[in-house]
Amino acid sequence: MQDLQEIKLSKEQKSYKKIFSLNEIQRCLKINKEDTKEIKLYKKILLFYATTGIRATEIYQLKQNNTDLFVIGGKGNKNRQICYIEYL
């Protein structure tokens, strides 16, 4: 039987950052008629990030595979496909 001093306890759980739900993000980034072209573009890019889970640095590596999918060169030279909402 092990001594109590030899038993390793799991680390205390780290606190997590607050995240927004997709509905909250979509509400904040809703494209309005009054928005300028530039604001609309930024909102679409942020919605694209939020809905696909793509990393900011991966945006430069996007290659369109077909009308529904993009291919991203990931870690270890592995490609992964992401789906996206057409209007984005």
List the defining traits of the structure above.
14% strand, 2 helices, alpha+beta, single chain, 88 residues, flat, 26% helix, three-stranded antiparallel β-sheet
Tell me what you see in this structure.
There is one protein chain. With 88 residues, the chain is of the alpha+beta class. Strands 1-2-3 form a three-stranded antiparallel beta sheet, with no helix packed on it. Strand 2 and strand 3 form a beta hairpin. 2% of the residues are buried. The mean pLDDT is 76.
In a few lines, what is going on in this structure?
The chain has 88 residues and is of the alpha+beta class. It has 2 helices and 3 strands.
Secondary structure blueprint with pairings:
Elements: H1 22-28, H2 37-52, E1 63-64, E2 69-73, E3 79-83
Antiparallel strand pairs: 1-2, 2-3
The number of helical elements comes to 2
DSSP, total strands: 3
Q: Quickly give the structural class.
A: alpha+beta
Order of helices and strands: HHEEE
- What proportion of the residues is helical, as a percent range? 25-40%
Largest sheet: 3 strands, antiparallel
Shape annotation: flat
In percent, how much strand structure appears in the residues?
5-15%
Q: What number is the mean pLDDT? A: 76
Rg on CA atoms, Å: 20 Å
Weakly predicted, low-confidence segments: none
Tell me the span between the first and last alpha carbons: 61 Å
Strand order of the largest sheet: 1-2-3
